[in-house]
Hints:
By secondary structure, the chain is an alpha/beta fold. It has a single domain, classed as Alpha-Beta Barrel (TIM Barrel). It contains eight helices and nine strands. It has helices at 7-18, 23-28, 52-60, 84-92, 113-129, 149-166, 179-187, 205-211; strands at residues 41-45, 65-70, 96-101, 137-141, 172-177, 193-196, 216-218, 222-224, 227-234. An eight-stranded mixed beta barrel has the order 1-2-3-4-5-6-7-9, surrounded by four helices. Helix 5 links the parallel strand 3 (96-101) and strand 4 (137-141). The radius of gyration is 17 Å and the shape is globular.
Amino acid sequence: MPTAGSSAARSAELVCLLFASLTVCASAVQAEYYCANDPRIEAVDLSAPVDQGFLNTMREIGIKTIIRYYDHEDETLPGKTLRRDESNLISTSGFSTAVVFQHHNNQVASFTALRGHQDAERSLALAGENSQPRGSAIYFGVDGPWQAAYELANVAVYFRGLKARLTGFGYRVGVYGSGLVCNMLLSTGLAELCWLGAPTSWPDYHGYYQTRKWGLAQLRTSQCGGRSVDFDMVNDRVADYGQFVR
């Protein structure tokens, strides 16, 4: 398995992965080189089921949390949804789990009060199946560069729908998205946790990154453990970003 040759090399790669929009970095760093141990990288997210071989590789490079998806029955990718058997495997292999709900959340038309209610309902069902404990988080994706007033208003309406349905069940609401969306939802109390999406072109990425109000910051897609993954930085000021152990 390729690894970075030194701490300096790993630091340079991390900067490039974070700011992949800079063409010099993007061309200089090969994604597979980041399949290495770095204490700043504690989580990995992926949209396909994990197996024991993959988990063994993640353990070797110091990953502590596996982030997987919740989705509706007509999932947008085969195998995208975390189910009980996979959840059991992650847990018995010694990892924490974190979850994000995403179902066409890269389309602004998805952000309605009705969809918020439906997505919350499905999330509760899957949280029950996966024995997700109260006090942990369910993130919801806002997968786009939206910044127009009506777009942000739709996102807010969606999260109000989520909150209305999730109230009383003990789950924290997180958002995966741009710095602009994270700031809006956290400042209005519609979300508690921010997972800053990887695209540095999304609104207020750099400014919000500097605030350190995020719990997770996603890096650009790379290859590790025989599959496509996104590694995630964990904010050292936020020990609890909604991950859970069963």
